[in-house]
Amino acid sequence: MDEASDALTSVGWATPIDDGEMTSEDPFVKRIDAQIRTDTGVGLDELLNPAKVVNLERDLYNLRTELASLTGVEISTSVLDMSTEECDGGGGGESADGVRTKIEKKEKDLLIERRAVFRGWLKNVFLGQAILSFVLSWFMATNPAVVFGGFGWFDQYGLDMPIRVLGFWWWWLFIVPSLRSRRPMGLEKKALDIAFLGTPLISLIAPVATKDTAIIWFANLAVVAGSYGYAFLLADEDSDDTENKKQPEWLKFVYKSLDFGTGKERGARK
Questions:
Q1: Is 41 left (phi over 0), alpha (psi -120 to 50) or beta?
Q2: What is the distance between the alpha carbons of residues 103 and 63, in angstroms, rounded to a whole number?
Q3: For 32-69, how does the pLDDT look when each residue is reduced to its tens digit (9 = 90+)?
Q4: Comparing C-alpha atoms, which of 131, 141, 137 is closest to residue 182?
Q5: Which residues does 48 contact at the CB level (< 8 Å), separation at least 6?
Q6: What is the pTM of this model?
Q7: How many CB atoms lie under 10 A from the CB of residue 88?
Q8: 168 to each of 26, 157, 188, 202, how far by Cα in Å?
């Protein structure tokens, strides 16, 4: 097993034994991406849950390695190039049977996840959701009676002001998240990351200066528009790596948290 690890390391592969996070630049992830492109014609980023695919592939790597050890199979290069059958020398007792059961389940899960592609129509659904949320939030923040006035509970419980407040918070709760759910890349992703951090700040601070919910709604609109303006006019997409190195750890953690589930993170554990 040590020889296999040495051989893997010598060609630039990091043995994915632990549960640490892997990025899209990790050789193990690149290998998975290449395999998926060959098998399905789409990349890892285009799957519905790329992080789960990476986790399953890593688990299978570890389980196959364990199975080979339990059944006396010598690994000359890497488990990455071996099927489960090739890693199984037979026998091994109850321990090996338990590993085989886990492998079978994870292989079934992986097959399902590999086929779950993030289709273009789904991106359009999220875009439509963002547009509808935009329109709804405007009426909520300016005149909620237009939408909710026909319901008895609206006047009965005096919900005019709470809904107005919810209207400008809608930017952070639904509009920006819907746009981010489309998994934009590059400059648009940078813009929406900034907007996702900026809109709750303006929604918390603005009420100190004004109680006019329409003005606060427009302030949120200005933050989102300003985020796009900054990203596309001032930010340099090629300088992302340099900027990331200069960012404080807490900010890196925030941006990493924003990436969870959007397709950029790889092998993130729950």
A1: left
A2: 7
A3: 888 888 888 888 888 888 889 999 999 999 999 899 88
A4: 131
A5: 113, 116, 117, 118
A6: 0.67
A7: 20
A8: 40, 20, 22, 10
Q: Which amino acid is at 55?
A: N
> Would you say how long the chain is, in residues?
270
pLDDT above 70 (res 17): no
Contact at 8 Å (CB) between 80 and 61? Answer: yes
The amino acid that residue 193 corresponds to is D
Token output for 79: 């488990």
Contact 216, 165 (CB under 8 A): no
Taking the CA atoms of residue 107, residue 110, residue 111 and residue 112 in that order, the dihedral angle to the nearest 10 degrees is 130
**How far is 128 from 117, CA to CA, in rounded Å?**
19
Task: State the Cα angle at 265 between 261 and 270, rounded to 5°.
Answer: 60
Answer whether 217's CB lies under 8 Å from 138's CB.
Answer: yes
pLDDT in tens, 122-179: 889 999 999 999 999 999 999 999 999 999 999 999 999 999 999 999 999 999 999 9
Q: Is 245 exposed, middle or buried (0-12, 13-18, 19+ CB in 10 A)?
A: exposed
Burial of residue 129, with CB atoms counted within 10 A of its CB: 0-12 exposed, 13-18 middle, 19 or more buried: middle
Contact 133, 170 (CB under 8 A): yes
Q: If phi over 0 gives left and psi between -120 and 50 gives alpha, with beta otherwise, what is residue 199? A: alpha
| Token pair of 160 as six digits | 């005019």
